[in-house]
Design brief:
The chain has about 160 residues and is mostly helical. The chain has helices spanning about 5-20, 30-35, 40-45, 50-75, 80-95, 100-115, 115-140, 150-155. Helix 1 crosses helix 4 (about 50-75), helix 4 packs antiparallel against helix 5 and helix 4 runs parallel beside helix 7 (about 115-140). The chain is elongated, with a radius of gyration of 18 Å.
Length: about 160
């Protein structure tokens, strides 16, 4: 990895939590400077705009979300336990400790203001719904959940 890529990744990793907690509109370049220790030129040498940083930060947070869910789900055996592990992850890690769900935080703000993130958020939300629906379907097949449960509606 080049020095430039290392710096770019550092900017993304350190600015992502700020975006998640304060929103795109509520986050200023001076806050990136503060959390990264870089001057404005150092940030703009790596990114063309704040929108580019926010898109990369959103993707970074979504990857962390997916990896976190996978980590807690893979150690469980039953579909029911996997589903509860996913829900507990959301409550304990995202809501209480980390500023909330980036899918909802970015998606709500980008709905009218940032078409790129709006599209990405929609895709990621659908993927999470499919993941939940798949867990419910597995639980129905295993007799853990009521056979009359509509997994797609449940996931929403």
């Amino acid at each position: 990895m080049t020095k430039g890529q290392i710096t770019r990744n550092m900017i993304i990793e350190r600015s992502a939590p700020v975006f998640n907690k304060k929103g795109i509109a509520g986050t200023s370049i001076s806050e990136f400077m503060e959390v990264t220790g870089l001057a404005k030129g150092g940030i703009y040498r790596n990114f063309e705009s704040k929108d580019e940083i926010s898109t990369e930060a959103f993707n970074f947070l979504c990857n962390q979300l997916s990896e976190g869910i996978s980590g807690v789900v893979k150690v469980k055996v039953t579909a029911k336990d996997k589903l509860f592990a996913l829900l507990d992850f959301y409550r304990d890690v995202l809501v209480i400790n980390d500023g909330g769900c980036p899918l909802l935080n970015f998606g709500a703000e980008a709905d009218d203001t940032n078409l790129v993130i709006r599209k990405l958020a929609g895709e990621k939300i659908k993927a999470l719904q499919a993941r939940i629906s798949g867990l419910v379907d597995s639980g129905i097949s295993a007799g853990e959940f009521n056979s009359g449960t509509n997994s797609s509606h449940f996931a929403v």
